[in-house]
Write a structure and sequence with these properties.
Layout (H helix, E strand, L loop, with lengths): L10 E5 L13 E8 L2 E8 L7 E3 L1 H7 L2 E5 L9 E9 L5 H19 L4 E9 L5 E8 L8 E9 L2 E9 L2 H17 L11
Antiparallel strand pairs: 1-2, 2-3, 4-5, 5-6, 6-10, 7-8, 8-9, 9-10
Amino acid sequence: MPFPKLAALPLLGTLALDILVLPTAHAEIAHTTLLTHFGIRPAWWPVLPIPPGWHQDTKAGNRLNAYALLPDGETWSSAPATITGTAQAGRYGKPATAISALMADDAQDAHDRDPDLTIQDEPTLTDGDGQTFRACSITPKNPKRSPYSRIAYGTEGQFLLTFTLNAKTRTALNSALPAFQTMIATYRERPNRPQPR
């Protein structure tokens, strides 16, 4: 899975020192601490609304440093499509500039891994609070090298959010796209969101 960037961190284990995940109808940012090859690192991810027919995979989420969703009845390795959500705090500066910079970095990373893929802008998406998410799609020439992807970028307070739909085939992407769009449309900022430390 090429996105998000933080998913590439090699984890030695997950050390949950300060996790703030409560099941609610509203979104929130979960905060935890991960033990990686680089030492103990703070990690954040958005708690996503779960579309009908999908479920959360906490084991994959901890491994990827993301909130991970799978179609019901599937495992991470068997799923034809997956959805992840990540949050990055205070890395790129002002929100509008930050989203463009993050998208450019992600596009460069994707091309570095697979020079033959195509990245194109897609129509913006709107979350449950009316916030606009910029979106792009990634189409691989060889699906064995890279997944088909739809990625949405937005902000919540000081956090940059990345929601990613990865699929093994174009058909799987198109089948999962309504669930991805529903998840974003029902995502709402939780008023008492924890702030980065």
